Amino acid sequence: QVQLVESGGGLVQPGDSLRLSCVVLGRTINTFGWFRQAPGKEREFVAAMRWSGVNTLYSDSVKGRFTISRDNAKNTAYLQMNSLKPEDTALYYCAAASSYALRSRASAYEYWGQGTQVTVSS
Question: What are the pLDDT digits (tens) for 49-71?
């Protein structure tokens, strides 16, 4: 079993930055990703990364603004969010998978955190 715990969400203004953290506990994972879900919308892919590599995958909506990373020694994944927009408002989840493939579909991820709320508003 893998347990994921997110933190770092909050209320910010457009253009601000925020860094989300996700502590990964339990079995070793091969890939991890970040998803978000706004009220009334489907869970949306944000970014993914191989845990042991440098390959990354970003959704078009966040590419150039968000950066996914991890600190292997701390077993912690991060999502650095810059130039935040109101449309970034959502509950953000970190997710993990045993697969080595970088995928954007939520169903490809086996383990999920509880979520952390990010609200971008003037």
Answer: 999 877 999 999 999 999 999 99
